[in-house]
């Protein structure tokens, strides 16, 4: 099987505190992996390094065949391939659910409004909230907001989620 994520001797410090200590991990395409641990153990930092949102000091990270550069020069290229749902969801409060889900596909992927809406509605149906498309994030429960964030990430059709 092809490798989707490869971490080799990954190290990350915040000041003098080492958050990630020589992490080695290989994830095959199609494999499902859960990163778990207590609060403050480095789970989010690890995922942010994989998604090129957080620089690391040493080691290597390869995602979908692309080496993540420590200085973040190729962050956009990596982030187009990796879908991520943030803990706080980061939905735009002034945009409807549908607009939250179509903004990136239009701007980043260059899809037409109709193409993006069709794709967004498909994923809103997959997470079972298509009837919420015209509502705003503040009108939704926390669980519904989480499903919008998942649908929004999936509309970009990432290679890694």
TrEMBL record:
GO MF annotation: an example: ATP binding
Keywords: Transport
Sequence ranges assigned to domain ABC transporter in this UniProt record: 5-161
Keyword Transport attached: yes
Matching Pfam families: ABC_tran
Similarity field: Belongs to the ABC transporter superfamily.
PANTHER family per UniProt: AMINO ACID IMPORT ATP-BINDING PROTEIN (PTHR43166), PHOSPHONATES IMPORT ATP-BINDING PROTEIN PHNC (PTHR43166:SF4)
Name assigned to this protein: ABC transporter domain-containing protein
Source species: marine metagenome
């Amino acid at each position: 099987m092809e490798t989707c994520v490869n971490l080799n001797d990954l190290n990350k410090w915040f000041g003098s505190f080492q958050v990630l200590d020589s992490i080695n991990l290989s994830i095959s395409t199609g494999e499902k992996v859960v990163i778990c641990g207590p609060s403050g153990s480095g789970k989010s930092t690890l995922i942010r390094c994989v998604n090129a949102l957080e620089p690391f000091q040493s080691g290597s990270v390869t995602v979908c065949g692309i080496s993540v550069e420590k200085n973040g020069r190729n962050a956009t290229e990596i982030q187009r391939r990796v879908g991520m749902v943030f803990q706080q969801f980061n939905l735009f409060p002034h945009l409807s659910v549908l607009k939250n889900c179509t903004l990136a596909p239009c701007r980043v992927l260059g899809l037409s409004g109709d193409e993006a809406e069709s794709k967004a509605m498909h994923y809103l149906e997959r997470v079972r909230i298509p009837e919420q498309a015209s509502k705003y994030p503040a009108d939704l429960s926390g669980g519904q907001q989480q499903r919008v964030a998942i649908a929004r990430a999936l509309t970009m059709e990432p290679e890694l989620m």
